[in-house]
Structures are given as C-alpha cells and as structure tokens.
Specification:
Blueprint: H1 5-26, E1 33-41, E2 45-52, E3 62-67, E4 74-80, E5 87-91, E6 98-108, E7 113-116, E8 122-126, E9 128-134, E10 137-142, E11 150-153, H2 167-196, H3 200-205, H4 221-243, H5 259-273, H6 298-307, H7 314-340, H8 344-355, H9 358-363, H10 375-386, H11 394-409, H12 413-434, H13 438-468, H14 489-493, H15 502-513, H16 529-542, H17 551-571, H18 576-580, H19 594-614, H20 619-641, H21 645-671, E12 676-681, H22 702-706, E13 710-712, H23 719-726, H24 733-742, E14 745-751, H25 760-767, E15 772-773, E16 782-786, H26 788-811, H27 816-819
Parallel strand pairs: 12-13, 12-14
Antiparallel strand pairs: 1-4, 1-6, 2-3, 2-5, 5-11, 6-7, 6-10, 8-11, 9-10, 14-16, 15-16
Helix pairs in contact: 1-2, 2-4, 2-20, 4-7, 4-8, 5-7, 6-7, 7-8, 7-10, 8-19, 8-20, 10-11, 10-12, 10-13, 11-13, 12-13, 12-17, 16-17, 16-19, 17-19, 19-20, 24-25, 24-26
Length: 822
C-alpha cells in the first residue's frame, strides 16, 4: 500500500479541489439571506414569511417552514432572495393558537449576521387576538376562528449585533458528502488502473467464467469489507444528495399519497400494536383484520420492526427502510455480479447502477413491498442452474442463492412467483445443455424452498379467511389485465426526458408526448441507459448478431442470453404471462419483473465488456475501454437519478398537507376522550380504491396516520363491516346521525374533496339535526362534526334499555355463519 500512497494522495487532492470549485460556483446559498426566528408554538402548523420587492406581497414571494406544536423553542429558517425588500409580513400560524417569539435575525447563508429585528416593532395585521412583549419575548395569540393570521415586520428596525449560528456546520457536512462522492469515484478509477497493470502471471491465473478449472483463491475478508463500506458510502452519499435528505421531515413518507397511505397503515399498527395482522384502530365500530389482505411481507416488516426501536413514527420507519433497502440491493447485486464472473471494481459500479434503477425510484415507498434486494441472488442462482451447476464457487452460489430463496419466500409473493418460473426454466435449460440431472434437482430444491416459505408467509391470511370468511371484493383482478400491466419494450429502453444530452432528451420527450394506450405502472420498468444497452445486446446475441471470439465466451454468455429472452417473452404485453394469467389472474402486473431482466442485461454487458478489455491488443485500448465503461456507469446513474425529481417536486406540498392534517387530528384528540369513534365520509372502496371526485386512492387513511387515541371507520373490508355499512346505505340527516350514535360513533369526518358539491348537502343535513362543527374554519378540506347533542337527545327519547336493544340489533344481529368471532 505504501508504494501507492502518492496516487491515493493525488485522488484525495483532486476530490478536495473539485469540491472547493463546486462550492464556489454552484451554491446560491452563499449569496442568499435567511430570516431566523426562534419561537415556540402551541399547535403543529406552518409559518410563512412574505417579502415585497416593490410589486406587493404574493405567494411567489414567500417562504415557509413547518412549526412544531410541542411548546419548545425551535429555530426556524426562512430563505429570502437577494433584492431590496420594501415590506415583510410574518404569518406565525394558520390555525388558532399561541406562539412566543424570542428572536428574529437576518443572516447570510453562511451564517454571518446582517441584523436583528426589534420585537417591539411587530405590528398585528389580521386575526391576531393579542400581541404583547414580555421579558424580551413577543407573545402572539391568534383568534379562535383564525385561518390566516398576519403580522407586519418593521424592516427598518434591523440593527447590527453579534450572533453566530450553526449554518457553517451544516454547510460543511453538505460539502463533505459531495467530497466523498467525488473521491470515491477517483478511487474507483485508481483501482481500475491497478487491475489493468496487475502482473501477467496473475492475469493468467484469474478465473474468467464458469468453465474455468483453475483453483480459486479464498475470500479476502478485508477486501470484501472494504468494498462493502465503499459501496455503502457511495449509496448513502447519492441518497443524501439526490433526495436532499438534509431538508426533509422524515416523519412524512417520501411519497404522501395513493398506495403509500395504505402501505404505511400496517407499519403504524406494528409500532402501536406490536405487529401488523390486527389493527383495532380501524374499521370501527369493529376492528380491521389486516391479515385478510394477502400482501404479507414479514421479512420486510421484521427489518422495519428493528428500525422502529429507534424511529417512533411510521413515516420515518418506512423512509429509513426504503433507503436501507437500496443499500441491501447494491450489496447483493455486487456480490451476484462478482459471482457471475465480473471483477470486483466493475461489480461495485454495476451494483450501484442496479440499486438505483428507475424502478426503485419510481416505485419508492408507494410500493415498498417491491423492494428487490433478493432478486440479484435469485437471478445468480438461475444462471448457475442454466450453466448445469458448473461454477468454481458452487458452494458459495448455492448458499447465497438458497438463502435468497428462503428470504424471498417470506416477502412479497410477486417475486417469489416469478422466481419459481425462472428456476424451472433454468433447470430445464441446464439439463439440455449437459444432459445432467444436477441442475433439475437444484432448481427443484430452490422451488421447494420458495413454496414452503411463501406458504408459511401467507398462513395468517389463510387462517383469517378460514376463521372469519374471505373479505368481499377480493376478486377484483381479471385475466385480461395482464395485457394492461405487462412490460413494454419501448418503455424499458426510453431515456429520461430531462436528460441534458439532446438526442436522449428528444427521444424521452417524444416517447412521453405520444398517447400510447395502457400507460400505467408499466412506465416504472424503464431500465436506464446501461441496462437498456445490455438488453439490446442480449437480444442481438440471441439472434446471432453478436460475434464471439472464443467458444468459452459463448458458453459464459449463453445462459444469460436465454434467461433474459425467457423473462422478456414471459412478461411482455401479449407474452406467455398472459396465458398463465388465464389460470392465475392474481399475478397481473408482469411489468414488475423488469428487475430480473435488468440484472441479466447488466450482467451480460458487463461480461462482454470485461472480455473486450481482457482481449484488447494494447494497454492503451484497455485503459480506454475501462475509462469508457466508468463514464458509461456515471452517465447511466445520472439518467436514472432524474426519476427522483417527482419526489423532490412534490415534497413541499406533501409536507404542508401532512402538517395540516396532523394539526387537525391533534385538535380533535385534545377535545374528545381517548378511544372515540369517528365515522368517515364519503364511503370509499377497499381494497380497490380508484378515488372519488377529487379524493385520491386511500385518502381516508390520512387521519389515522397522525392519530394516537382515536378509532376510524375506514376501511370497510370484512364481511361483518360491509354488512353493517349496507344498513346505513343512502342515509342522510337524522337517519344517518341516529344510526351512527347507535353504532357508538361520536364524531363524523367529512372530506369535502369526495363530493361534487364539496359536501354541502351532507354537512347541512347533519347540522340541521344537531351535529356541531367542532373546528369551524380550521380546514378548507375537512369538516369534523360532533354528535354529542344527538347522543343526548336519542338517549332521552329511547331510554337506556331501548337504546341498548337498538344498539345490539344494529351491531350484533349478524349471520353467525358468516362472521365468526370478533
């Protein structure tokens, strides 16, 4: 190592220089100003600062942050662009409450103080009940009906004083992350150079593929640990920079709408109730037996359970798990590529590319069950079977492959299903290659492991169906949907429309502008430039358009070519999967198996490129090929990471919505006793939930995610709940209010977005019979109606005995043969 110390020093020096140059030329924070406000609040909400550059106050000239209602002082930072500010307005909350401001200061992005605001110059402007200065603090109380309280700040009151904050520290951390990325890239080039200049006798001794009979060296544990740590730092650095993790609220899922809302529900239950199978807080007035929905991912949940020991909210748990799953995928892919026969440094780069497939970024936490960290090792095992179980490290391949099969069996059923098909084909392929039963036996063992593990994984669902009956609306999948959700080769090859290279950008924009039919979740199967090139290469090889220089090279490539062709023919629109779907319609979204094709594509192009390097006639050509491949890896990563944009673009709106909904729920919990039942309107479907009017799928899960002491009527999943709900169908006004009271509900949550008239008719019919608006003016979307007066009136009218009899008739007079135990 000592003889290479100068080269390592140069790599580090280059990383430092590039980081400094990037710091100087690309960060606008150096030339921006920030208003720092130290305050505490009584309510969770958002605070805004509006600045007037001479054109009046407007939303476009504003900055906002989330405010914590924990009655503790926090420092909030509002970014203010350069310019001459004529006026400044501060909106401390958008709900009734109280804030206490201790300090307001203006600084540069680097932390240099420009001036401080004299709190005595704060002027109430709208919906401020009281503003008083006490002990050098401004105590501001908003009105009870406040939804837009405003305070004007006297801008001329700025005066110099000495104050230093932590801005420089966080800025330095941000630079350090970029330095690590650049330096690791340089070290990758350095180790590639070392490999090219290794001794000739070592080159001759290397194993170049499955057929080699050379003695294989023992695993170098230190080298493996070093590669794992290097890849960990690379992946974490990319995640931090690409997702801007330093500025997000981790309690809000990366994707806060649609399917995410449902997948977070069992995670929250796991934190509150111990596990995910039964959720007492949902499906009121009964309970939600979530195990009846056969989407068991017990392995993932076990990892999340460990994460929940240090992260107390469901949003943080699912976010951390998703980020960690990308690390696991990079590690498993790197190991699998290396065992396929690709050198360590090349496997590392390709492992990172595979971990950040557009599939991972577009699915993100919304389809957390589709994390694919087992897929590389399953694909490796299939290649092993297809090569008739010939490998210099057969024991290692079998160990990691069978372990992956066991792990996948306890995860989402989709990848387990396709793995069984893939192993069956690979075993048959291996048999016809060498007329040996060994690959058939190995494939049978792998298939058996997956089937047994998957059966155990789904056992809670089967038990729930047997005990309580299979829920209604579970047969919502149909055979023809395989033609709707199948893979599209066109979409797999397309680059991102925001790619800065003109030809790729034009290709991506043109593809997106044409209104092709059935564009749905199959758009997430985009492979990225490197895997797309690998797939094209394998397709050309399958029809003989690629010339192989040696028979050994053909033997190494053949199983990868055949497995990728089988996967494509099975999963594409109109493929063999559509035939299988006539028998098993539950597996309709064949686009999800693109991750198997991506692995084969990367393995194929990696093996081919490595062989070109090894057979290059001169050292200069070798260096050029290695450098070109590293550039190709970097370019593919760049194109793939563009798919993170949709998460970053939604982030501000998602966090604002989460803050608002959390504030509404906390206000409810402050006014009602623990365990109160809330009926949610309008009624929406489950498990298929296409949305309703402006409501998006699973929007009724939103309030549950922020509550800790309430019970909610959504979803109507069990037969018991559906039978009860059918009795309320079509009710409004007095009939609905009385039925809900008899069903033990005390509140009604109305989502205005679910009605064409914004719920005006339903709300007025309930208010006319005694329901009261609990939080008037607090939310433009949600209305919370209190049934306390209806409860008192109905108890007086019926008397305690008659009230109890009618309650029993409504809740318990259900067919015993249908429900089983509650």
């Amino acid at each position: 190592m000592r003889k290479h110390s100068k080269t390592l020093f140069v790599c580090l020096l280059i990383g430092i220089v590039i980081t400094i140059l990037r710091m100087a030329f690309t960060y606008p924070e150096w030339n921006s100003s920030y208003l720092h406000v130290v305050m505490k609040s009584s309510a969770d909400d958002i605070a805004k600062v509006y600045y007037d550059f001479g054109q009046g106050l407007s939303e476009k000239d504003s900055s906002w942050v989330k405010v914590f209602g924990d009655q503790k002082f926090h420092e909030y930072k509002f970014k203010i662009p350069d310019g001459v500010i004529r006026a400044l307005r501060f909106d401390p909350l958008a709900v009734p409450g109280q804030v206490i401001i201790r300090k307001m200061e203006l600084t540069t992005g680097f932390g240099k103080l420009l001036g401080s605001v004299d709190l005595r110059q704060l002027k109430p402007a709208n919906q401020i009940k009281r503003l008083e200065i006490r002990n050098h603090e401004a105590i501001i109380t908003t009105q009870e009906i406040a939804n837009d309280p405003q305070i004007f700040v006297e801008w001329k009151s700025l005066s110099s004083s000495g104050y230093i904050n932590w801005a420089f520290f966080f800025f330095a951390v941000r630079l350090l992350v970029e330095f690590l990325v650049i330096t690791c890239f340089g070290l990758g080039l350095y180790y590639a150079w070392l490999w090219l200049h290794r001794p000739q006798e070592k080159q001759r001794a290397e194993v170049t593929g499955f057929n080699s009979g050379e003695v294989v060296a023992k695993w170098d544990i230190k080298k493996i640990a070093g590669i794992a740590l290097l890849e960990l730092s690379l992946v974490l650095s990319i995640e931090i920079v690409a997702l801007r993790l330093w500025k997000i609220d981790f309690s809000v899922p990366f994707n806060y709408w649609g399917d995410t809302l449902w997948v977070v529900v069992p995670i929250k239950s796991m934190i509150e109730n111990g596990w995910t199978y039964v959720i007492p807080q949902l499906s009121a007035p009964f309970i939600l037996r979530a195990a009846a929905f056969p989407s068991m991912t017990n392995l993932d949940w076990s990892i999340m359970k460990i994460i929940s020991l240090v992260a107390s909210d469901a949003g943080s748990v699912i976010n951390i798990f998703w980020l960690f799953s990308i690390v696991l995928t990079a590690w498993s892919a790197t190991l699998a590529f290396h065992l396929v026969g690709i050198k360590s440094w090349l496997s590392l780069g390709m492992g990172v590319v595979y971990a950040f497939l557009p599939f991972a970024l577009l699915r993100n936490v919304a389809h957390i069950s589709l994390v694919y960290y087992c897929v590389p090792l399953l694909s490796l095992l299939a290649i092993y079977f297809a090569r008739s179980c010939e490998h210099p490290r057969s024991a290692t391949v079998r160990l990691v492959g069978y372990s992956a099969a066991l792990a996948q069996g306890f995860d989402y059923i989709y990848f387990s299903f396709f793995s069984v098909l893939l192993f069956a084909f690979a075993g048959w392929l291996g048999f016809i290659q060498k007329r040996s039963w060994k690959p058939v036996k190995g494939a049978a063992i792998a298939v058996g492991i997956i089937i047994v593990a998957a059966s155990l994984n789904l056992m809670p669902s089967f038990h729930s169906w047997y005990t309580h009956g299979k829920p209604s609306d579970m047969s919502y999948k149909s055979p023809q949907q395989a033609e709707i959700y199948g893979l599209k080769l066109r979409k797999m090859l397309a680059p991102h429309e925001a790619n800065s290279v003109p030809i790729f950008s034009q290709w991506g924009k043109l593809d997106k502008s044409i209104r092709f039919p059935n564009e749905n979740e199959n758009v997430t199967a985009r492979l990225g430039p490197m895997a797309a090139a690998g797939l094209l290469f394998l397709l050309m090889a399958s029809i003989g358009l690629v010339r192989h220089q040696h028979e050994h090279e053909l033997d190494v490539m053949r199983p990868v070519v055949f497995l990728s062709l089988f996967s494509l023919l099975f999963t594409t629109v109109g493929g063999f999967g559509a035939i299988v779907n006539q028998i098993l319609p539950d597996f309709r979204a064949y686009n999800r198996f693109s991750v198997f094709i991506a692995f084969f594509a990367l393995a194929g192009i990696g093996l081919w490129w490595q062989m070109r390097v090894r057979t290059a006639v001169t050292r200069r050509i070798q260096i050029f090929l290695v450098g070109a491949f590293i550039v190709f890896i970097a370019f593919s990563l760049y194109d793939q990471l563009l798919d993170v944009g949709h998460l970053n673009n939604r982030r501000a709106a998602d966090e604002m919505m989460a803050i608002h909904e959390r504030a509404v729920v906390k206000q409810i919990e402050a006014k009602v006793p623990p365990g109160a039942l809330i009926y949610q309107l309008p009624i929406t479907g489950f498990p298929p939930d296409p949305g309703k009017e402006r409501m998006l799928p699973y929007d009724h899960a939103r309030p549950y995610l922020w509550s800790s002491r309430l019970h909610w009527s959504w979803p109507s999943f069990s037969r018991q709940h559906r039978f009860w709900l059918d009795q309320l169908a079509g009710m409004e006004g007095a009939g609905l209010a009385e039925a809900l009271v008899l069903s033990k509900f005390r509140l009604i949550w109305v989502d205005r977005f679910g009605y064409p008239d914004k719920g005006a008719r339903m709300i007025s019919s309930l208010i006319n019979v005694g329901a009261k608006d609990m939080l008037p003016g607090m939310s433009p979307r949600y209305v919370i109606l209190d049934l306390a007066e209806v409860v008192e009136r109905l108890e007086r009218q019926l008397g305690a005995e008659q009230f109890a009899l009618r309650q029993t008739a409504l809740l318990e007079a259900l067919p015993s043969s249908t429900w089983g135990h509650r």
